[in-house]
Amino acid sequence: MIRFKCERCGAVIKCADTIVGKHVACPTCRHKLIVPRKAAPIHHRLLLVAGLVAVLVAVVWVVWAVSGGDRDGRADGSSPADNTTRPQPGSEEALREFDLQREKQLREWEQADTARNIQREIDRAKWLADRKAQQAKEEAERKEAEERSRRGLPPKEATNP
User: Fold this and answer.
1) What domain range is 104 assigned to?
2) Residue 33 needs a FRET pair 20 to 30 A away by CA distance; which of 54, 86, 138, 152 works?
3) Region 75-87: what's the mean pLDDT?
């Protein structure tokens, strides 16, 4: 059994494994979708990402070590641009700087998540408005057809050449 979400309305759709790659309609919004392959379990994806990050860190470290470490060659860790020293690893100042950087990164992630959620809500509202407009149009057409039928007039399609 495969579970996936509709791209348009977000409804969870369940399908048999045998129809992978085939077209299905969302039961909620009737949007046509292609049944995706079964996704790898989340822990497999996490292990893959963790492995790629570890390889990337190793490559960066090797490049840094081969290039001679600090480019300016100052043993005290000072920067030639501002003539300040870096905090010693493990010191209170270094821990405060790390905490500030971590909080800044978390705020950036939260802002990105908020923006994505807002866009998702805007898209959903547009879809709902379009759906209601389509339903209203279909209802008006149905009522018009009933009225024409009640009066004994031919259906509207028959009058258009």
Assistant:
1) 91-153
2) 138
3) 56
Of the candidates 66, 89, 91, the one whose C-alpha atom is nearest the C-alpha of residue 77 is: 89
How many CA atoms lie within 13 Å of 144's alpha carbon, on the beta-carbon side?
A: 9
Q: Specify the length of the chain in residues.
A: 161
Backbone φ, ψ for residue 43 (5° rounding): -70, -30
Pairing of strands 23-25, 2-5: unpaired
CA distances in angstroms from 60 to 54, 69, 71, listed in the order given: 10, 11, 15
| pLDDT score for 75 | 47
Of 43, 47, 19, 44, nearest in space to 33 by CA: 19
| Residue 143, in any domain of the structure | yes
Evaluate whether 86 touches 72 at the Cβ level (below 8 Å): no
Please list the alpha-helical segments (H only) found in the chain.
42-66, 92-151, 156-159
Greatest CA span in the chain, whole angstroms?
98
Between CA 17 and CA 38 the distance in angstroms is 8
Query: Residue type for 6, please?
Result: C
- Residue 77 clears pLDDT 60, i.e. is over it: no
Within-domain flag for 25? yes
Express each pLDDT in 89-101 by its tens digit: 778 888 888 888 8
Q: How many domains does the chain have?
A: 2
